[in-house]
Amino acid sequence: MTSAEQARRSESRYSRDGRYGAQAAPVDQPRTTRRSSTSARHIASRSEGIDAYTAKRKKKTRGRIFKGVLITLLVAFVGICGATAAFFFDINNRLTGDLPEDLREQLVAVDPQDPFYMLLLGVDKSEERSGEWGSSTANFRADTIILARIDPPAQKVTLVSIPRDTMVDMGEHGEDKINAAYSYGGAAYMVEVVSDFAGVDISQYAEIDFEQFTSIVDTIGGIEVTLPVDVIDETWAGINLTAGTHQLDGATALALVRSRHAYDAYGGGDFYRAANQRAVIAAIVRKILQQDPFTMATTVSELAGSVTTSMSVTDIVSLAMQFQNLDIDHNFYSGQTPTISEYINNLWYEIPDEAAWKEMMERVDAGLSPYSDASQDFTADATIPIGEGSNISDSGEGSGTQTDAEDEATFSGTVQVLNGTMTSGLAASKSAELEAVGFTPNAGNAASSDHTTSMVYYNGDARSAALGVAQTLGIDKTNVVENTEGYSTEFNVVVVLGTDQAS
Predict the structure, then answer these.
(1) What mean pLDDT value characterizes the chain?
(2) Which of 341, 359, 441, 488 is in the most buried spot, having the most CB atoms within 10 Å?
(3) Does pLDDT of 53 surpass 90?
(4) Any residues with CB less than 8 A from the CB of 370 and at least 6 apart, and which?
């Protein structure tokens, strides 16, 4: 092949601008034009490459950012959960860490929706006494003994004080004052003795020493009480309060629940002091139930160093949430063991009136007030009242007859919950409240959304269930009527929610 032919082949394979396989530009086209055309093709190609590359980089970057945020959130969530777990573990350790194993074995478990009994003890411990006598329970006695019946489904609480000087038979220890049980066998033996004496199983326990009582009241910001008479006991309790309503701090509340000589003119000071102790507990409960769950948990944390109990922080908050609708004015009952004072072997004892005590505990176990007649509460005129109620659960104060069955609230059955307002989710939230106390609710919407007053309708003989629904939701009993309005008869109860429930 000649050199001329090789040159022509080469030109057919390469363009004049040196690109392989490109068609040669016409010979008559100006050189500058050819350059600009070629340059334009290069620029377009490179631009497309950069855009594609940048898009890919952005996708990868966004993916990495999303993964980073997700990992950060997960780490934060795990951290929060860990911190929360540590928070609750610390509280529970302080609440229940010192609970003796023999006490745990003594407590009797109950189903979550059943009423249960709890023993509350105020023990005469203090740092000074512990330092002088030692920390053994044999060196201390229970000055305050309260048996509490707690009924979440019925939204009722009953406190019964057992006088510390009550004579009981303790088997191998013989007949002695009931508060000596703590010295003989600590909290576990105290639970055993009180359980036998009252004839009920005890499922929970709480103990506080008087020195720490002040921190409880101060932590919740004080309590309000109304005194019907002057309480003056400066020598023994350091208290001087006039009749009327007072806001008490921890120190003053402690002085009040310790004072018995302020009532010397009325009779046995221990009985009046015990009645005030129950009223102060009710005032503390009222204050705590006003808190939201988070604040409540924080409060329990602050109180954990002052109380030893069998209940965890979650148990306490859960129980409090169930009692958010507790009507303390009318469903918080109070009483004390009926006894007769006797002076035996140079000591004063309280001898139980066996028949009256048995009758009282039968009433308490049935969810009624300890007293069937107002005259049985001889301390009522001089001690702090609990709310605005009469402390008598029977119809007709002083009648001695129990409430008619049709006026007794029950907390089971099917309930249709209809939202009669513009508030979204109202029926669902109220259904949750009803389910928590034992009802089987079904949420829905009413035919109209202009209801102002909530009404409870019952079918057949379900009036008692309707009263339970009304009580749970805080609806007035006068708004409980028979279903004659054409609402569904497939449910025991139909509740139509008005704007009074939305607020």
Answers:
(1) 80
(2) 441
(3) no
(4) 158, 160, 333, 334, 335, 336, 360, 363, 364
